[in-house]
Amino acid sequence: MARDFPKPQDRYPVVYLKDTDLPLPKHVVNNKMRYAYFKTIARGGKCIIQSCKDFHLSRVVAYKSLRPEIADDPFEQQRFLREARVTAMLQHPNTIPIYELSRDTSGHYYFTMKLVEGSTLRELLDARSKDTEDLRLARRVEILAQVGHALDYAHQHGVVHRDVKPENVLVGPFGEVLLLDWGLAKVWSMTEEQVPPMPFEEVEDPSLTARGKLQGTILYMSPEQAAESSDLDHRTDIYSLGAVLYEALSFESMLRGKTTYELLEAVEQGAIESPRERRPDLEIPAVLDRICLRCVANDPADRYQTMAEVVAELQAWRRSITP
Q1: If you compute the radius of gyration of the chain from its CA atoms, what whole number of angstroms results?
Q2: Which of these, 238, 236, 189, lies nearest to 215 by C-alpha position?
Q3: Which residues fall within 8 angstroms of residue 141, CB to CB, at 6 or more apart?
Q4: Which of 269, 311, 276 is closest to 293 using CA atoms?
């Protein structure tokens, strides 16, 4: 990957593939009595997240593991390790703390992390509570600015998230905003990834992360990511954040299409109706409309060139409406 990440500095050590994808030892000393009282709190296409009691530290934590049917898949194991280590290495207020990475008594990978109660941005947007105090426009913009902070920090370390979407943004009860799921992250010195041969299947829900050769979520995927460009850089995250901003402004998906392939064609064509045109009834501020459209420009050169610029613009608008 080209060295074109913004403002590299010595205080931001680069995250290397040799560190994130290193396998764990086959035999890890594991006290099977450390974790107990498991309760499933989320079940995704690849992973299961459970709450449990950590008896070493006398607290409840989140315990993430691969689904049983893919727990022995080397490719999924590699992705799982990368997610755990990238999340752990990116120590930022808008990323979730990781406590332990190990194997269970069956030899399968797991990692534990801070248990955060709250709702995903997807859940909040689907509730369509745009007039309530918890999801007023200013709050929606502030949430995305916090996501932008996490991405800017990751980009400084040479990491591209590649799957920014409302489902991966957690909003906690104390106002905290966390960007989750770094399993698709592209890290330093990583060439085009060798994805196992698997036909790309039509997915019923386009908000789900694809499991075929095309990796990512179609509704938020940049044109270069959809084209499987080998030199994908941090500007793909800028596009994805813009697609989420579009939805936060309009309460509608940016792309329209009934099938996966129609959505991919819409991404490639890049003909985006502005949020203000889509939803004139919401009186979307012109400056937010402009920020959104610049983020989702088809050509990466026409987008903001750093996530810090996007955050600065969002926060400038937020300050402008503060009494």
Answers
A1: 20
A2: 236
A3: 245, 248, 288, 314, 317, 318
A4: 276
d(CA 46, CA 211): 9
Report the amino acid identity of residue 252.
E
Burial 148-174 (b: 16+ CB within 10 A, else e): bbbbbbbbbbbbbbbbbbbbbbbbeee
Q: Active-site positions?
A: 163
Going residue by residue through the chain, which has 323 residues, state the pLDDT in tens, using 9 for 90 and above. Answer: 444 555 545 567 788 877 787 777 776 666 667 899 999 998 988 999 999 999 999 999 999 999 999 999 999 999 999 999 999 999 999 999 999 999 998 899 999 999 998 999 999 999 874 455 457 899 999 999 999 999 999 999 999 999 999 999 999 999 999 999 998 999 876 555 554 444 444 445 555 555 444 556 888 999 999 888 888 899 999 999 999 999 999 999 998 877 777 787 877 777 789 999 999 999 999 999 999 999 999 999 999 999 999 999 999 999 998 76
pTM of the shown model: 0.85
How far is it, in rounded angstroms, from Cα 190 to Cα 230? 9
| Owner of token pair 């745009």 | 130
Euclidean distance between CA atoms 249 and 293, whole angstroms:
12
Angstrom distance (rounded) from CA 44 to CA 150: 23
Residue among 117, 2, 131 nearest 51 (CA): 117
CA distance 36 to 41: 15
Yes or no: say if 215 and 49 are a contact pair by the CB < 8 Å rule.
no
Say what angle helices 307-320 and 137-156 make with each other, to 10 degrees.
Answer: 160
